[in-house]
Write a structure and sequence with these properties.
The chain is mainly alpha-helical. It is built from 8 helices and no strands.
Amino acid sequence: MGLMDKMAKSMISKMSQEQREEMMLNMMPDMLDGINIVDMMSKMMPDMAKSITLLDLIRIIRQGIPQLLDTFKKLKDQMPAAMEKAPLMMEMMIEIMPEIMSKMMPIMFEHMDLDKMAEKKDVMMRKMLEKEPLDQLVPQMQSIMIPGCLRNILPKISVEKRQMFISEMQGIFNGEFGEPN
């Protein structure tokens, strides 16, 4: 740790959280000028994820949705460069997501009506499939992902529920699609 690091640490430790947040917001644009965010985040993510709590995630999600939509618009332009980093990001997600989800999902599902949630998912899927290019991409992606999901999930389902599930799936595959939810 250099002299500047020691001085900065000493100064920062004497500041309130509000002062530190204000300083970060004021300095961040200058500090990030010329920095490749994708590279930086891929290096920082493993250490950052270890310190994130469930309450942090809920707060971030609640406050960040408007910013997230704006960010998606900006990321669209940066997507080609980001895709070069996709394999690294996927490897990190394989390590991070099970840990995060194992803490978050039980709390989320504790107060959720899973049947209603599935119904909402079906409505969302139908609306997504009305849009191009999702009408092609989603079926392609799901046809690749669903078999692997089933191989992992079916052994965890009771025999009775598995038989009901298989019967429903056979009906779908035999053309008994029913009405979309």
